[in-house]
Amino acid sequence: MRWQYLLPVVVLAGLIGLFVFGLQNDPREVPSPLIGKPAPAFALEPLGGGSAVGVDSLKGRPVLVNFFASWCAGCQVEHPFLMELSRRGIEIVGLDYKDTDADGLRWLRQHGNPYAQVLADPGGKAGLDWGVYGVPETFVLNADGIIVYKQIGPMTEDAWRTRIAPLMAGGAE
Amino acid sequence: MNGLLRVVAAMLLLAVCGQAAAQDDLAPPQQERYRVLINELRCLVCQNQTIADSNAPLAADLRDQVHAQIVAGRSDAEIIDYVTARYGDFVLYRPPFKRSTWLLWVGPFALLAVGLVGAMAFLRRRRRDAVTAQSVDPERLREILEDKDA
């Protein structure tokens, strides 16, 4: 058998490998350059009013920072699971992205509030600084306030179990 | 016909005005920088559009940021750094050459080189085979042919 006859097979196998790799990568999930960096600063008022809260309030224990909005369909998809996480004692801080206080509060009354604290980001400036490009997005912060993971799109049981829970357990030590 | 032309002209004028509205407080060289920058940055919501083309709210926010930072006197490099620090090299239509992007830059040329080498090898062998065919001994060939005739 001459090696030339094997060449198309090798090329085809290479292409199949490439396509399988490509199909398993969602191009909508753009890796964040903020992984491994301190969470960007913000000064945001709690939803419904109050004195501004800074990013330092997130330090000292692992915490989830969830960007959501009342107008966001994906947020309704993940909401029951966030409620479940909150029941398990996970601290989630919500950032209500490009929303009005009235809409945000009504949405939380309607669906339940899984958040330890909800901050309002009506102009989306904090979202911009955190590299948010489509809610929902959830950041995992360790006790030092370093972003260790970013979940793009709805939080799922699978993502929680395989990737996020181990990170949060590690940060608690 | 004349009426239609007038409508089209009015629409074009409106479109141009819409474009200019966001940048009319910039001096002409700054306007040019604004135009170049927003055409270099990708909108992450609708990934195959620049933030100049996209109507997504995120693209509008980024245009406003570029605008505000030009007004604040930031350099182009500083503005690009600002955006890539938040969204990564993916937002750049011309990403920098570095470890994570070298395959992107070199890959097409490497494939072209492999193709050229393959084509050259193929052509050279074909030429060599052709030479072999011409180098048949004419005497021997005649002998065979005559032998067959006989």
Provide the fold topology.
The complex is a heterodimer of chains A (173) and B (150).
Chain A: H1 3-23, E1 43-44, E2 53-54, E3 63-68, H2 73-87, E4 92-97, H3 101-111, E5 117-121, H4 125-129, E6 137-141, E7 147-152, H5 157-172
Chain B: H1 2-21, H2 28-38, H3 57-71, H4 76-87, H5 102-134, H6 138-149
Helix pairs in contact in B: 2-3
Kindly describe this structure.
The complex is a heterodimer of chains A (173) and B (150). Chain A has helices spanning 3-23, 73-87, 101-111, 125-129, 157-172; strands at residues 43-44, 53-54, 63-68, 92-97, 117-121, 137-141, 147-152. With 173 residues, chain A is of the alpha/beta class. Chain A has a five-stranded mixed sheet. In chain A, a hairpin with a 5-residue loop joins strand 6 and strand 7 (147-152). Chain B has 150 residues and is mainly alpha-helical. Chain B has six helices and no strands. Chain B has helices at residues 2-21, 28-38, 57-71, 76-87, 102-134, 138-149. In chain B, helix 2 packs antiparallel against helix 3 (57-71). Chain B is elongated, with a radius of gyration of 31 Å. Chain B starts with a helix and ends with a helix. The chains are: A alpha/beta (173), B mainly alpha (150). At the A-B interface, loops of A face helix 3 and helix 4 of B.
